[in-house]
């Protein structure tokens, strides 16, 4: 997942391309949006971009732009850093998956509840109902602070190197997500961001949405078999070539798991490009 995107950074920096670079063909103009709203729209539409193709992606972008018309983000500057972080965490699913219009409404609802004008301290928005099913409970395995170490191999994604990082994963305030705050370093370069894990009951799969500090997004779909998690995604290389990505996590214990990332070019075989280990901090 995020490790895969990290392996791609060297190539993208050299070519000045982003993995979320948009097709120039019939693409709606996002240049007038704030960086926050633009990142939210691109994240919400990333499934269409990488799984359904550019035509569907452009339609999703236009739908998001139409929904955003007349909507503005409420001002959180007067809040304490703790309250602001709490509100942004509660609304992270709306921001990353549902788009900026719903994200703005979630923020405003949280502000109203905080000021006492709301009817309840619990705010619900589309997609954030409480989940107590077994599938979601499996995601709680990742809750905690994890130390990540790994080694990348020379591949289409770049040169070999070491990976080190920390992932601080918390149960989302909406009761139906796990929020991850991550920091990673590879070959002297650092990156950080936030991710949301959820269970998609309609498709009976797990989902992972990540947004880093530059606004780049990642979307993966996962399944669980026994103690093994398999997450699939699509990566776009600097020359526009799409490759499949497969990230595998094997739970060794309640406090340790191994991880492996592989890629598969079109009509090619899977090849391992990174492996590592994660340990839960006590």
Please state how the strands of the largest beta sheet are arranged side by side: 1-2-3-4-5-6-7-8-9-10
In round numbers, the mean pLDDT is: 80
CATH superfamily of the largest domain: Calycin beta-barrel core domain
Apparent shape: globular
Counting structural domains, the number is: 2
Q: What's the helix-strand series?
A: HHHHHHHHEEEEEEEEEE
| CATH architectural designation of the largest domain | Beta Barrel
Strand content: 35-45%
The level of helicity is 25-40%
Briefly note the structural class of the backbone: alpha+beta
Total strand segments: 10
Put simply, the count of helices is 8
Tell me the name of the CATH class of the largest domain: Mainly Beta
Rg, please?
19 Å
- CATH topology-level fold name of the largest domain: Lipocalin
Taking the alpha carbons of the first and last residues, their distance comes to 24 Å
Pick out the low-confidence regions: 10-24, 118-132
Main sheet characteristics: 10 strands, antiparallel, barrel
Give a description of the structure.
Helix content is 30%, strand content 35%. It is α+β, with helices and mostly antiparallel strands and 282 residues long. The protein folds into two domains: 103 residues, no CATH class; 149 residues, Calycin beta-barrel core domain (Lipocalin, Beta Barrel). Strands 1-2-3-4-5-6-7-8-9-10 form a ten-stranded antiparallel beta barrel, surrounded by four helices. A hairpin with a 2-residue loop joins β6 and β7. The longest helix has 16 residues. It starts with a helix and ends with a strand. About 11% of the residues have low confidence.
């Amino acid at each position: 997942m995020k490790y895969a995107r990290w392996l791609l950074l060297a190539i993208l920096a050299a070519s000045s391309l982003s993995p979320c670079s948009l097709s120039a063909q019939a693409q709606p103009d996002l240049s007038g949006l704030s960086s926050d709203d633009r990142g939210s729209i691109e994240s919400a539409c990333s499934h269409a971009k990488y799984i359904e193709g550019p035509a569907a992606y452009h339609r999703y972008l236009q739908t998001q732009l139409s929904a955003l018309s007349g909507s503005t983000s409420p001002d959180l500057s007067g809040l304490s850093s703790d309250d602001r972080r709490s509100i942004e965490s509660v609304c992270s699913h709306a921001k990353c998956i549902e788009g900026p219009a719903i994200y703005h409404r979630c923020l405003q609802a949280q502000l109203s509840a905080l000021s006492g004008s709301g009817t309840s301290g619990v705010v619900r928005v589309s997609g954030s109902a409480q989940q107590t099913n077994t599938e979601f409970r499996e995601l709680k395995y990742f809750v905690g602070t994890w130390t990540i170490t790994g080694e990348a191999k020379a591949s289409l994604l770049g040169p070999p190197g070491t990976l080190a990082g920390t992932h601080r994963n918390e149960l989302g305030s909406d009761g139906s997500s796990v929020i991850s705050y991550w920091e990673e370093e590879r070959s002297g370069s650092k990156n950080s961001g936030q991710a949301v894990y959820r269970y998609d009951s309609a498709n009976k799969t797990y989902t992972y949405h990540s947004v880093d500090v530059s606004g780049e997004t990642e979307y993966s779909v996962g399944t669980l078999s026994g103690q093994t998690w398999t997450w699939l995604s699509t990566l776009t290389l600097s020359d526009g070539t799409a490759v499949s990505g497969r990230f595998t996590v094997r739970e060794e214990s309640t406090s340790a798991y191994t991880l492996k990332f592989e890629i598969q070019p079109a009509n090619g075989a899977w090849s391992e490009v990174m492996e590592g280990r994660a340990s839960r901090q006590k």
